[in-house]
Design a protein that fits this description.
The protein is 33% helix and 30% strand. The protein is α+β, with helices and mostly antiparallel strands. It has two domains: 11-53 and 110-177 and 274-352, FAD/NAD(P)-binding domain; 183-269, D-Amino Acid Oxidase, subunit A, domain 2 (D-Amino Acid Oxidase, Chain A, domain 2), CATH 3.30.9.10. Strands 1, 2, 8, 9, 10, 11, 17 and 18 form an eight-stranded mixed β-sheet that branches. It has an eight-stranded mixed β-sheet with strand order 6-5-13-14-15-12-16-19.
């Protein structure tokens, strides 16, 4: 059902552009602190596909302030391990059970469910998303910023935040560079029902000479499959996914794809905004950083951006702190994103190498490292993003 377009308020303390998990988190955190927020999204209805399906421990921790973490856990699937395999042989296993967190696991939860929970919380707090409104212009001056949308309406606000993804309209109007590149290979993404014999309490990364495949359990008996291809089909079907698992997944007890619930293909970029702030315009989430899905950290890093930014915006807008407080947001969060971009880039390059001798060296190195407890802890802390918490460094 298409959401009825309602006239926009003329003014606000802040405008948040984008109603994905990052924009919703930011808006809810601001509204909870009494900040007047207008949330704009170009889509007529919320997205209904699973997309990002991993919620890490650090993200659940920072969302406790919004009182949504326990609901996310109740709707998701707790997965305590991550394993790397060469077909049937385990090379490395990372157990999250000893993480110093109330959430010592990976939570598998489709993104549309995460967004629905965050949207409900925003509404409970008195906020709402305005749809469909496409931003056509953002201008700023010494006193504030003006957002113009496709209907011709304008909103005057103290600050505008672009949480509108990789092709951010807000970032375009800041003039901030988005440095980086695109991986040569494309990725297949599919939610499927599987008949297979391996455990459903692990996220599994399979190596094979043909490329990598990730298989992760999802709620309601589904599995997420991610794999690299030189040229992925636009809408991978059951035969496409089956061929990938036949050539890269388990051999002794092969996985059988029963059906495909949803599928897509995408190109992966690794890019980082040169700055997170241009005067009264700020960036968060994919508008500020995009990277490989290795480790499932994109949405998580963005949600953590949102919580950090909400604290600083509240201090400026509600409590009268100097606007320089917002410079601390970039100082706090951009290094985290830079580390994530670098970490996932290394993981992707190691996982996708097509050079057979390097594949053998990689596998041997992983088997050797699997014996070292310090390596296990470092991997668990990095994947869970607990390593980004200054108090745990």
């Amino acid at each position: 059902m298409v959401t009825e377009q309602i006239s926009l308020p003329a003014t606000a303390d802040a405008v948040v552009v984008g109603a994905g998990p990052v924009g919703l988190t930011l808006a809810a955190a601001l509204v909870a602190e009494g900040v007047e927020v207008v949330v704009l999204d170009r889509l007529a209805t919320p997205a209904t596909t699973s997309r990002a399906a991993v919620v890490h421990a650090r993200t659940l921790e920072v969302l406790r302030g919004l009182k949504v973490s326990e609901q996310l856990v109740s709707r998701g699937l707790i997965v305590p391990r991550f394993t790397v395999r060469d077909r049937d042989r385990a090379l490395m296993s990372v157990d999250f059970g000893s993480l110093p967190s109330p959430y010592p696991y990976t939570l598998m939860l489709p993104q549309d469910v995460t967004e629905a929970i965050l949207d409900d919380r925003l509404r409970e707090l008195g906020g709402r998303v305005h749809r469909p409104y496409e931003v056509t212009d953002v201008a700023q001056d010494a006193g504030g910023a003006t957002v113009t949308v496709s209907t011709g309406e304008t909103i005057r606000a103290a600050y505008v935040v672009g949480a509108d993804g990789m092709h951010s309209a807000v970032r375009e109007h800041t003039g901030i560079g988005f440095s980086g590149d695109t991986y040569a290979q494309s990725f297949v993404l599919a939610d499927v029902h599987l008949d297979w014999q391996l455990p459903d309490d692990e996220v599994m990364l399979f190596f094979a000479p043909e490329g990598l495949a990730v298989i992760a359990p999802l709620p309601e008996g589904r599995h997420r499959v991610v794999a690299t291809l030189d040229e992925a089909p636009e809408h991978p079907d059951r035969a496409d996914v089956q061929a990938l698992l036949d050539s890269r997944g388990p051999q002794r007890a092969p996985a059988r794809v029963l059906d495909v619930v949803w599928s897509s293909r995408f190109r992966v970029h690794h890019r980082l905004a040169d700055r997170y702030r241009a005067g009264r315009l700020l960036l968060a989430g994919d508008a500020a950083h995009v990277h490989s899905p290795a480790g499932g950290q994109g949405m998580n890093t963005g949600i953590q951006d949102a919580v950090a930014l909400a604290t600083r915006l509240t201090a400026v807008v509600r409590d009268g702190s100097d606007g320089s407080e917002l410079d601390g947001y970039e100082a706090e969060r951009r290094p985290v994103a830079a580390d994530v971009v670098a970490f996932t880039d290394r993981m992707t390059k190691v996982a996708t190498t097509r050079h057979l001798p390097l594949q053998k060296v990689r596998n041997a190195a992983l088997r050797a490292l699997d014996w070292l407890p310090a390596v296990h802890r470092a991997m668990a802390m990095n994947l869970s993003e607990l390593a980004t918490d200054p108090d745990r460094r």
